[in-house]
Structures are given as C-alpha cells and as structure tokens.
Q: What sequence folds into this?
DNA sequence: GACTCTATCTCGGTA
DNA sequence: TACCGAGGTAGAGTC
C-alpha cells in the first residue's frame, strides 16, 4: 500500500463528472491497483476513487488512472508532503454475525415466533422472479409466504407482494397469505403492507438468538 | 489525519458483531475523530469503521472507540510499523454534474423530449406519499405524471404506479397517464411498466445537455 | 458477463 | 431526531 499526502486537484470523468479544487489530501494506492482520495473527515467514503483493475500512468506531477469501462481519474500534484510504501500482505477477512441470513435461519428453525402453529415447508422457495425466503403451512391449512428483512422498508413489501402474485398462479399451494417480517418495520411499510393485504411482524434478533441459545442449553 | 500501519486484531460490536483476525492493516484516524481500518485491496470500503462523533480511549497496545449510539470498536495492536500525523485542513468539497436532479431540470425545461406536445404544469408536485417529479399537460388534454430516474429499475416503476394511485383520487386532474423516464431502462422495468399501464422513455443525458447548450447559443 | 439483492450501506435532504 | 431517497452506490452471490 502506498500512501501519498499531497496538495492536489482531481478530476473524474466516467459515470458522472466531478472536480476537486486544490487542497491537501491523502491518496491511497492499494496492492490491487485501486486508488482512493480521502479528505480529513468522514470515515467511510473517499472523495474520489477508482476500483481495480486500473491502468495507472504516473509522471512527477500528474497521475492518470483509467479503467476498462472508460472511466478516468486525473490527479494533478502541486506539492507532495509525504510518500510512503507499506507491505501489508493478504487480509484473512472479516467474519460477521447478525445479518439477514442469520435472521432467516433463526426464523426457519422456529417459525412459531412469526405466528403460532406455523410449520416450515421450504426455505428460499423458487419462483420465476426469485426465491421466497420462507414458505410455511399455517394451523388453518393456508400457505404462508414470508419475506424476511433486517430493516422493514417499502421495497421489501413490494417484493413480497410480487412473490405472492406469482405464487397464486400455482393452485397447488391452496389459500395463500403473506407475512412481512423484520427487526423493525417503518410506518410507511406497515401501511403499504396492510393496503396490499399482507400481515407484518416485528421480531427481536437478540431475543431470538437468546432463545435459540437457551434451547440448545437444554440438551 | 493520523495514519497507523500495524499488525492488529479488531472487534466491532454495534449494528452487528464482527471480528478481524491478526494481520497488518492501515488504521486511519481523521480530524473529526472517525476511524477506518483498511486492508490492501478494494478502494472503497474499509474492513471496519466508526463514524464521528467518537470517544477514543488509547493505551499503548489497545484502542477503544465508542460512539453515542453504543457501538464499540476495539483495536488490539500487536506491532506498530508506522505512525504518522499529517495536517490536511478543510476540504473545499466535490462538485458534481450528471445526477438525477440535473436530468429532471433539463426535462422540465424541455418536456417535448419525452412526448411531443407536453407542457410542464409543475415540478415536485406534492402527493400524500411524496412528490411527483414532473406533472405535465399533454396535447390530448390528459395529465401526465412523470418519474425521472438516472437508471430505470423496477422500484422506480412501482413508485410511479403508487403516485398515480394517489393522483387518481384527485378528480380535478382529469385523465391521468404515467411515463417512466430514465437514461436507460432495464427489460424487467419496461415489462413491469407495461403491465401497470405505464409508458416509458429512454433519454440521452449528453444529447439533452448538448441540445440545451445549443439552444442557449442561439441567444 | 449480466442480473440480483444486501449493506454496520453512506450521505444529504426535510419535516 | 427520524424518515426518505439517491448513490460514480460497492460487493457478494447466482445464473
């Protein structure tokens, strides 16, 4: 990894056009050839960047970075304050817990949390427009399609509504209902779900995980 | 801005939980107190980060960063390879061209590009569920609601369909039609638009801008 | 390669 | 503050 601190102006032409006036910034060049320009605020997003693969042409005061998609980043260096190189090696990578997949897994193991009497038929049940997260049989004999999201927003409701449109074409599933499940569901999404004739249910991830752990402790 | 290159292990507990095993990485601490940890690949996304405002507690081999939301990042330093400080100053900021707002502006100035005979009634016409990008009067006397997107995807079509549902409740608007406008519209979005009874139109941003510039040159 | 969906999404606007 | 929408979304997975 190469770290250059320099007074520079930057120009990007690609998916849009942007200009950075002269100022002091950090230019980060990684082993894979990607380039990011950071200001001294905002942890996440670089001001400008170019993802690998890149062709970097470098002269004393001007870098031209271009990629196969035809995007171009031009950095004009007015003064270099620091230019260092570091060997980092491969990163073993990040391991995560708490994402949608895990929530879906917990609910698949215990669909009663969503509605009493639910029994899992299938996970990732295929339709022409994508897989339905969970398909269950309800106590009343109806089939229940469940869309699981970490955060319940309007798109998730639309997604579930589209799945149901397609599922209803398959008469073998009998009476169909839809339930939208998330850790928290925004008011707009609740309203839309109700207008679309869908039920919704908020579930607590920590509680669900705790419950699961407790159950495992019994054995 | 402080740049530390170090062998470290990192632990994040907050919106999810994550662990980074021991490896050499760049730790970037910005003037506003935000922290980002970068591996030597992928320009954009840090492995871990904490946005400002942060409380940073630092000892020789362990940093604890916490924020008011209760998120915590713990960095254990096994070996510091480099630790430098740089004064960057405020950044004058990025100026952009080519975003949706500008596209909407160009279309508002020249709605005939969408359909011959269209005359603008209103931009950002308010409804209970949000503003309609453009509302126009057509040559045939009907009212046309237009949703403008840079990229035409399925959500945009749903959005326009929802707006029309609400607009139809207002009988003063007369006969209503919807047109979905974008620089490029995906096949799925076209199909959905047609099923929902909506028209769609692809427009060329550069051409539109060029045309506008040409018109201005006439004066 | 194209298309899909997720994200500690980030970031900016607004009520 | 919360909600909502755009993003050069990026990045991962699937077909």
A:
């Amino acid at each position: 990894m190469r770290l250059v601190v320099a007074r520079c102006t930057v120009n990007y032409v690609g998916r849009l056009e942007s200009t950075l006036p002269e100022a002091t910034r950090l230019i980060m060049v990684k082993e894979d050839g990607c380039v990011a320009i950071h200001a001294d605020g905002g942890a996440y997003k670089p001001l400008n960047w170019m993802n690998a693969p890149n062709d970097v042409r470098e002269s004393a005061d001007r870098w031209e970075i271009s990629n196969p998609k035809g995007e171009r980043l031009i950095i004009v260096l007015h003064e270099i304050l620091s230019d260092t190189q570091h060997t980092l090696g491969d990163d073993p990578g990040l391991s995560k817990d708490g994402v949608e997949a895990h929530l879906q897994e917990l609910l698949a193991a215990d669909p009663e949390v969503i509605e009493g009497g639910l029994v899992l038929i299938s996970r990732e049940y295929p339709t022409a427009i994508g897989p339905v997260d969970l398909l269950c049989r309800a106590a009343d004999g109806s089939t229940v399609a469940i869309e699981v999201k970490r955060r319940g927003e309007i798109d998730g409701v639309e997604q579930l509504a589209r799945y149901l449109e397609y599922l209803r074409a398959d008469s073998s599933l009998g009476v169909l209902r839809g339930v939208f499940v998330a850790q928290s569901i925004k008011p707009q999404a609740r309203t839309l779900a109700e207008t679309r004739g869908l039920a919704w249910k908020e579930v607590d991830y920590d509680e669900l995980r705790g419950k699961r752990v407790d159950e495992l402790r019994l054995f």
Summary: Residues 37 and 43 of chain B are 12 Å apart (CA to CA). Chain B touches chain A through 56 residues (CB under 8 Å).
